[in-house]
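Listing S7. Sequence submitted for prediction.
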Amino acid sequence: MQIPIGQKIRALRRERDLTQEELADMLGVSVQAISKWEVGGGLPDISQLPPLASVFGVSADELLGIDVANEEAEVQRLVDEVYAPVWRGEIEEDSQVYMFGKYRELLKRYPGNLNILSSMLGNGVNIYSFQLDDKPEEKPALLEEVEQIANTILTRSHDVTQIMGARFWLLSLYCETRDYDKAEEQLAKFPVGTDGEVYDTKNMRSRLLSSKGDYVALQKHNSENIAQEAYKLLQEMEQLGGVYVGLKRPDDAETVYHQNIALYELLFGGEEWGIAAATAVAYQSLSMCCARRGDIDGAVANLEKHFGLMLNGNAQCGKITRRTSPLFSCMEQDLTGMVSVYYDKGDFLRVLGYPAYDAIRDDPRFRALYDWVETLGVD
């Protein structure tokens, strides 16, 4: 619903306790112009809308009397209605073609609506990529339309999800057209925020390299991604086990710790030193679980494995290391960035001093670990 702009100007002027003369002076127009606007005898020039909006402290949409919130709610309802029959399996034609056509119809009612444009963009790219092999003559027009949709979003939207979505679909489109310079340009414009990325640019880089057929670079890129994700997963699993300890659910904690170790051994068991730091592997946490329930052999055995990781970390830290597993064989990297901690004798003694070991501290098998630490050549 729209309120006549003259009525809106008059209401806003009165709300701010301005006279027509004061408003006229602020805008550099005559009092007669203000009066004509307010009684509907004329409209402000389009160049006067930004100063008017600034004087009243409102958006141009509000000044024009457009109920933006209600309009967007209605648009969202209509967008949902387009997808609903597809989700229910009621559409016999290709779903991408169906939705793209429906969104085109909605744009006639709501020209330039960013929600509609963002919703239809992926449909257009998918149609271009998969539906027009037997209609190549239709591709140029669709390519132009899809690029225009994406660039409209990038030019007008302030919503980061819409912007990243537009860049994602443009990159996919340019991979399809083999315009790799433009694809690289879109990939380079994805911001990396401190709170994470809206889209996974690692997978997008994989998409681009695969499209180029650059399998050497793709092998290295994917191996590095696997290493980083595996390291993160091990850390999060170890932390999850700690949550279960805090919740007084020791059985669940031990299950998670065993799964953490199984994953570590699956990925890195054949390596002298895994990419994960010792603190990401649950040997130490599992050792403490064993100690709490009086399993001295389990406590000592797992702690010895933890200490072994610490020593291997010291030996490999800062070295250039080539992996042997096919997952990582192409990686030749300086481990300083990922394994940057050098453990000294105090670190080993600090672990032995954890309260979880109080109940078994006097056992000869546990005491032997203190003697072993004293023999270490670490400062």
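Caption to Listing S7: primary sequence and predicted structure tokens for the chain studied. The mean pLDDT is 85. Residues 220-374 form a domain with the Serine Threonine Protein Phosphatase 5, Tetratricopeptide repeat fold (CATH 1.25.40).
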